[in-house]
Write a structure and sequence with these properties.
216 residues; alpha/beta; Rossmann fold; seven-stranded mixed beta sheet; binds S-adenosyl-L-homocysteine
Amino acid sequence: MEDSYRHKGLRKILVEEIRNKGITDEKVLKAIANIPRHLFLHDMFVKFAYADQAFQIGAGQTISQPYTVAFQTEHLQIKKGDKVLEIGTGSGYQTAVLLECGAKVFTIERQKLLSDKVKKFLPELGYSPNFFYGDGFKGLPAYAPFDKILVTCGAPFIPEMLLDQLKPGGIMMIPVGEGDVQEMTKISKSIDGQLDTKKLGQFRFVPMLGEKEWKQ
Ligand code: SAH
């Protein structure tokens, strides 16, 4: 698992590209500069690791585009020690970004194959979130409430159970939409429990699938 000067140099260029696209949170940019994204892709695809694009990671799933990861993370305004629930562990790249920003991460993946793989891989890089194999629509009621909730797959609607698990004063980022394109949605819960919803533009994610769809 080599991380060479060439890889580090490519990451610097990627960070500048993302900065030019409008990301300003230095914590997030530093996380992207630190994480060896090439190790999250198959060896064969190393040359794509530092392009600002999503990529296939097997089992029909993708590692999100670095800009998208940065955009969602920046909007969550992560503070050291924040308890964050992530839906869709996938490759674990977004999980690593949250950890680098100082969050305590609880991450759920519904595909056994990916879940098993990432459980082994992330700790090898020194990243240790709390891993769960299960259905993100349900969240993790036993560990709630969370300061922040991050959904990294396209949700057909905003799951009520996730809203319930968001702390007053908390923020949830969730791409909402049933087709190929979703509307990035930021939900802020006020101290007295009021929800404020903002739409932040269109993004593309793999679909968030419910239990019925994936047990078939
Ligand atoms: N954050 C990931 C992106 C993964 S793509 C990364 O940085 O690599 C979205 C992931 O969400 C896929 O792995 C998919 O299997 C998972 N997913 C889809 N529906 C889900 C659900 N209901 N619960 C948990 N994970 C789900």
